[in-house]
Each structure stands twice: as C-alpha cells, then as structure tokens.
Amino acid sequence: MLAALVTAVAILGGTLFVLHRPDALPGADRTARARVAAPESGTPPPATTPAAPSPSGTTPPAPTPPSPAPGPGTPESTPARGTGTFTVAQGTAEPVGHGRIRRYRVEVEDGIGVDPAASAAQIQGILGDKRGWTNDRRNGFQLVAAGGYDFTVKIASPATVDRICGAAGLDTRGEVNCNVGSQVLVNVKRWTTGSPRFDGPIDEYRALVINHEVGHRIGHGHEGCPGPGKPAPAMMQQIYGLKGCKPNAWPYGADGGYLSGPPVP
Q1: 90 to each of 10, 80, 83, 200, 233, how far by Cα in Å?
Q2: What is the pLDDT of residue 157?
Q3: Which end of the chain is more exposed for a tag (fewer CB within 10 A), N or C?
Q4: Is residue 103 part of a domain?
C-alpha cells in the first residue's frame, strides 16, 4: 500500500475496501424486491431512476419472519457470473441498538442462487448480536427495504464484484470483496465458502466481514493482534494471518468487553 495514495485500499478476510467518510447522502426511495441494475460506482443516479447505495426513523412495520440462513457451498457450485441486476430483500425490521441509527438494505444479484430474505435475516442477526457494534450503546442499525438508507450490503457474483470494484480502481481478481462508497460488495464465493485464512464456521466468517466493514463505517480503523492466544480483533485484517491470535468475528466478547488490539496505520 502506498501512503501517498489519497484512497487507501486494504484486505480483510478477503475484503478490499476504500477508506471513506462514515456518512454520505441518503439514497433515493425504492421499492422492496425491486430489480435494479448494478451501479458502476458509489455515486447515486438521479432520483427518477433506481439509486446507487448511499448513506442516511419512523417506527417501521413489524419485521418479516426470518428465513433459514443459506448454507455453505463449494467453489465448483459458485456461479462466476450473475445477471447484473439485484433483488432487494423484502421486509423492514425494528431498529437495534442506541444512539445514531444507520439504515441499511440488503441486495442480492439475480442468478447466483442466494436467497435475499435469508441473507438479510442473517445480516440483521449479526448487527443485532450482543457481541456486535450495538454493544457500545452509541450505534444502532435498521434493516429497510424502501426509503432513505445509509449503506447497502450487496452479495454478487465474482464478475459483478470485479466490475463495480474495478470502476473504483480496485482489482478484486474474482476472489475477494470490496467496500466502495456506500456499498459493501460481498463476493458470493466468499459468502458461500468463507476464507482459507479464517479457521471457523461459515457463519462466523460472514459475521467477520459484516462487522469489519460496518466497523469502518462507524469510525474504527484497523487493529493488530493484542497477544498470543488472545482473540483477534474484528478490526484486524485476519486475511494476512493471525500473528498468534485466535480467529474471532466479533467486536465484543461474551462478557461485554471490547476485543481490541494495537492500532495499525
């Protein structure tokens, strides 16, 4: 990584991201389950067309009953290319956490065999977990399907991730995720098979990706291993190796303590 670059790029458990301000402009209203074309960048188009993801409650309707989370797959069963259009997960949930409530929506590319409702339910569970960022009592999150929102989590084929991330100057090589603008792009290969560097269940790896990226959005930087045998911080770039730490997907431990490490430039 070159320090002289204005845009910083790094990798987490297979995730590239562009460092950016935690807050951006609200996205335009859109309808649940609307099919939208994959944007080429994080810049929202005019309000008369489907908007690209960008940052922003009234009391929402009751949440949609969660569907079972999608199970792990194999690299051979992961499609290399989808349709290039996305389906927005249906349903709006009650906010979780306190303080600033960030609204987010989940979109899944059509043709990759991943259920939007199941994925949204899993992401909602991650962000609402007591080991997650709501434990700081300063941040909260709300899953939405329409109206203004702060960011989107998109699960997409390797080809689509490469195209969207490549438009921002990132080379994801058909393998890794990226975080650009107000979009978290999750490569379906990583979503269904995990990371070879993360020794844990697929659901834990998914939690690591979501917690790390959302951590950046609320102002957290990278952290290193605090010592041999200790849990790796969620903000550690665990794809580079654990440096003696144990794999961990969560910002906070079961006892409510923050699992921190030394700051990493």
Answers
A1: 32, 25, 19, 29, 32
A2: 96
A3: C
A4: yes
DSSP E strand boundaries for the chain: 9-12, 15-18, 35-37, 85-88, 96-97, 100-109, 139-143, 151-156, 177-180, 183-187
Task: Say how far apart CA 162 and CA 192 lie, in whole Å.
Answer: 17
Residue whose pair of structure tokens reads 């605090």 in the numeric block? 226
Residue from 251, 253, 219, 262 nearest 133 by CA = 251
CA distance 131 to 259: 10
Q: Is residue 263 part of a domain?
A: no
Kindly state the tokens that stand for 81.
């290319």
- Identify which of 147, 119, 121, 122 has the alpha carbon closest to the alpha carbon of residue 58: 147
- Total structural domains within the chain: 1
> Residue 98 sits in which domain range?
23-212
Q: Is the pLDDT of residue 26 over 80?
A: no
In a domain, 101, yes or no: yes
Under DSSP, the state recorded for 105 is: E
**Residue 208: what are its φ and ψ, rounded to 5°?**
-60, -45
**pTM of the full predicted structure?**
0.71
Checking DSSP bridges between strand 139-143 and strand 100-109, what pairing results, if any?
A: parallel
